[in-house]
Design brief:
This protein is of the alpha/beta class. It has twelve helices and 13 strands.
């Protein structure tokens, strides 16, 4: 029996790539949704121009008798959305409206949500590794991290109201690879990389291939729950900078936000107070549930994902 899957956010790289991968599966009918069309048509899918903040999403889901929704539509930087206010509206209001549409769709059986490990925050009292049931010692108060905390809260509320729907939330480490562009990849691409004096945080990555594959698995083999998704191992930030052949600029803590704001002004990288805390204290994830319950094994370790990114940067250079 064929299934019908909606993927939001298909005009951006990861959403479009996931839609393309799912579109090659002969058991699936895939509908891509976004406010603008992808730069290049995605083979194997139907594209619908729509805003997830618009109640029209309910009609789209109902008319197509959609059984699975993959929410890739949240935005991680203000620059992508045209400003922080627009970013929050898309992430929070958009998710609320999408979930309301899902709640009214009787055919829906599965919801997969792309989230972020930034919901754990970063601080000096953090555990060695965050498990999915831990609460942050420093609750995010700004930016993508704060939006994601709210987004996950709405998703949990939806799961309570629709217990018949399999809800999977994937909390990803920083995505990196040859193509995907994120605030972290922009930061690490600077010829001189600023770091905080006296701190050398632990960082983890998920390769863009593994990110897409973990979501594909969650669509094809739904497993309810919340899962940390990251490559094996951790790196110190200083190690990552050295492996990329970059120079390190060590900045006293009180001056780091000033440096970060100046970088934002020049369009080099996007920073928020939560990003600054991450670059100070770092974060590490426990991924046992990813393997033992979700059944996903990344092909790329944290170090290998960084190496893949480094090779792509050397070609650019």
């Amino acid at each position: 029996m064929r299934r019908t899957v909606v993927v939001t956010g298909v005009s951006r790289y990861l959403g479009g790539r996931l839609a393309a991968v799912l579109g090659r599966d002969e058991t699936l009918d895939v509908i891509g949704v976004d406010v603008i069309a992808p730069a290049d048509p995605i083979a194997g899918i139907s594209f619908v121009r729509a805003d997830i903040r618009n109640p029209v999403m309910g009609r789209i889901l109902a008319d197509a008798r959609v059984d699975t929704v993959v929410h890739m539509g949240a935005i991680s930087t203000p620059r992508e959305a045209g400003g922080r206010a627009s970013m929050k509206e898309i992430n929070v209001l958009g998710t609320m409206q999408l979930l309301a549409a899902c709640e009214r769709t009787p055919s829906l059986t599965s919801l997969v949500v792309k989230s972020t490990s930034a919901v754990y925050g970063s601080g000096p009292r953090d555990p060695a590794k965050f498990t999915e049931d831990m609460n942050p010692s420093h609750v995010p108060t700004s930016g993508w991290a704060k939006d994601s905390v709210e987004l996950e809260g709405y998703v949990r509320g939806f799961a309570r109201r629709r217990p018949d729907v399999n809800v999977t939330t994937l909390r990803f480490a920083n995505a990196i690879g040859p193509v995907v562009q994120t605030s972290m990849s922009s930061y690490l691409s600077m010829p001189v990389v600023p770091t905080v004096l006296g701190f050398d945080p632990r960082i983890q990555f998920i390769h863009e291939d593994d990110l897409v594959e973990s979501i594909r698995l969650s669509v094809l083999e739904p497993t309810a729950g919340t899962y940390n998704i990251a490559g094996d191992g951790v790196l110190l930030l200083s190690q990552a900078i050295r492996r990329l052949g970059r120079r390190q600029l060590i900045v006293p803590g009180p001056l780091f936000p000033v440096v970060a704001r100046r970088l934002v002004g020049r369009g080099i990288a996007d920073f928020s107070p939560e990003s600054v805390r991450y670059l100070t204290y770092g974060r590490s994830l426990d991924t046992r549930a990813m393997r033992e319950t979700l059944g996903f094994e990344p092909d790329w370790s944290t170090a290998q994902a960084l190496e893949s990114f480094a090779e792509s940067r050397s070609h650019v250079a």
